[in-house]
Design a protein that fits this description.
By secondary structure, the protein is α+β, with helices and mostly antiparallel strands. The chain has 5 helices and 14 strands. It has helices at 11-16, 70-73, 89-97, 103-106, 153-161; strands spanning 3-7, 26-30, 35-36, 51-52, 55-61, 77-85, 87-88, 112-114, 119-120, 131-136, 139-145, 171-173, 188-193, 196-202. Strands 1, 2, 3, 5, 6, 8, 9 and 12 form an 8-stranded mixed sheet that branches. It binds magnesium ion. The site of magnesium ion (MG) has 8 residues, from strand 1.
Length: 204
């Protein structure tokens, strides 16, 4: 199983970090050891400095996908939830400045926090009509809507599948809306999808 993450898929978030909106999807990987499952605590690694929350719609693949056309891509999705693409921001900025790969900043243990409620894809599911919110200690910190994605979930799956085969159980983090901020010890992070809490995580 692998975790594929999309970067810069909301214009407002790309801009808040000083990046241009991309012309085609930007993606990177996290290993399966990055997954933090419901009930597990987020542990801050002192080597990594400032860690930012990035709340994202996450879809899980149901089937193999290779060169899948856009109009068939959503048929290959099993379920969806919210996740946190935790990011060591200072480390990432340093790596970006040196044109080095991002893994140290993005692929560390526990950096892919998964929601506790996994919703099945049904005929009525519209992944581009999802309101996303993240609260930190009860305060709204990130708010977005999947209609504002630069590339739809179907386009993302189709694009990634032209480069690497997606397998059953693979997770696709679809990019974060604006409002990314640091987390700290004792924080309670709660993610809401269309008003329903689907993610709850505590920082040790
Ligand atoms: Mg992200």
């Amino acid at each position: 199983m692998k975790v594929i993450c999309i970067g810069r898929n909301y214009r407002a978030h790309a801009e808040e970090l000083g990046n241009a909106a991309p012309k085609e999807p930007v993606f990177f990987l996290k290993p399966n050891t990055a997954c933090l499952y419901p009930g597990q605590l987020i542990r801050l690694n002192p080597l990594l400095g400032t860690i930012h929350h990035e709340v994202e719609l996450v879809v899980m693949m149901d089937s193999y996908a290779k060169n899948v056309p856009v109009n068939m891509a959503l048929g290959l999705v099993a379920s969806f939830t919210l996740g946190l693409d935790l990011t060591a921001r200072d480390v990432q900025e340093e790596l970006k400045a040196k044109s080095l790969p991002w893994e140290k900043a993005k692929a560390f243990d526990g950096s892919a926090v998964l929601g506790e409620v996994e919703l099945p894809m049904t005929a009525g599911t519209d992944l581009q009509n999802m309101d996303i919110q993240l609260k930190r200690n009860g305060q709204l910190v990130q708010k977005g809507h999947t209609r504002d994605m630069l590339f739809t979930v179907a386009e993302l799956i189709a694009h990634v599948s032209r480069y690497m085969t997606l397998e059953p159980g693979d997770l696709l983090f679809t990019g974060t809306p604006a409002g990314v901020r640091p987390i700290t010890h004792g924080d309670l992070l709660e993610g809401y999808l269309n008003g329903n809490r689907v993610l709850r995580a505590v920082v040790e």
